[in-house]
Automatic annotation (TrEMBL):
One Pfam family from the record: AbiEii
Name of the protein in question: Nucleotidyltransferase
Gene3D superfamilies (alphabetical): 3.30.460.40
Alphabetized InterPro entries for the sequence: AbiEii (IPR014942)
């Protein structure tokens, strides 16, 4: 789905958030798609829109939902307390974080999906977004690719049976990161072109991804420790790791599990290195 087809959604949510004075940023598939398209990388598109919204209370969150239901004809989705459906059937996820959280979690009563983990969302809000103006004329703060990867590590770890697509997205972000961020790499990470420091040119993108993730996570020791532990555990599991096998599915037929292991090891190596 192209941005032009989502303009009415952008306009509606922008109007709602502006009127209610809500801070927000775009995350997940649409955010990734925006960065990919800026560099001409073709990848699967998305049919839904995900917003992370800064909320002080459950009452404030319900005010946002009610605004969209009463004034914009959105409907609630019984299977997920964090989803609304636009009048033309587009799914809009509104994921709250901030003071509404209790121990990095938001829980509502009801049926279906009523709780979400929000680890990392505050750190991304402060340190992992960039302003983007789309061809539709809408301007948003959008989670960066490194922030998207960070959140996907957390999402997979929270629900590995339901979030396997997140691993595929992490692997593709890592493999395309060099081409998507050449200027950043040449200006801020040119130490990696030293052959004595990096064995393979293909490792540079994943290493820089790890470094950029650390710039976000370093502001929360708890988040930094969790991300490091996620990567460390899968590297130690080797062939027993479903995470590594999912990475391997994104690679060429010639690749083996060791290649997938190397990619995750490169990300973790960058994440554990000193901040430049």
């Amino acid at each position: 789905m192209r941005h032009g087809e989502l303009k009415h959604i952008f306009d509606t949510l922008e109007r709602c958030f502006d009127e209610l004075r809500i801070d927000y940023y775009l995350i997940d598939a649409l955010a990734r798609q925006i960065w990919y398209e800026k560099e001409g990388v073709n990848f699967r598109t998305t049919k839904d829109v995900d917003y992370a919204v800064l909320m002080s209370s459950r009452e404030e969150y319900q005010t946002v939902r009610q605004y969209l239901i009463d004034r914009e004809n959105f409907t609630a989705y019984k299977g997920d307390a964090f989803v609304l459906i636009s009048p033309d059937g587009i799914q809009v996820d509104i994921l709250p974080f901030g003071e509404i959280e209790t121990d990095e979690e938001v829980i509502f009563s009801g049926q279906g999906m009523t709780n979400i983990k929000v680890d990392g969302m505050k750190e991304v809000y402060h340190y992992g977004t960039a302003s983007v103006t789309l061809e539709t004329g809408n301007s948003f703060r959008v989670a960066t690719l490194s922030a998207i990867a960070l959140l996907k590590f957390i999402a997979y770890d929270d629900r590995p049976d339901q979030r396997q697509k997140d691993v595929v997205d992490i692997a593709n972000i890592a493999r395309h990161f060099f081409n998507l961020h050449e200027e950043l790499i040449y200006e801020q990470h040119n130490d990696l072109f030293d052959e004595e420091k990096v064995a393979s040119f293909d490792s540079i993108g994943p290493i820089v991804l790890g470094r950029e993730m650390k710039k976000i996570a370093e502001h929360s020791p708890k988040l930094r420790e969790r991300l490091n532990k996620i990567m460390e555990n899968h590297l130690q599991m080797k062939e027993k790791s479903i995470f590594l096998r999912l990475i391997l599915q994104t690679m060429s037929e010639e690749a083996d599990l060791q290649t997938a292991h190397r990619l995750l090891s490169d990300i973790r190596g960058g994440f554990c290195s000193a901040i430049l």
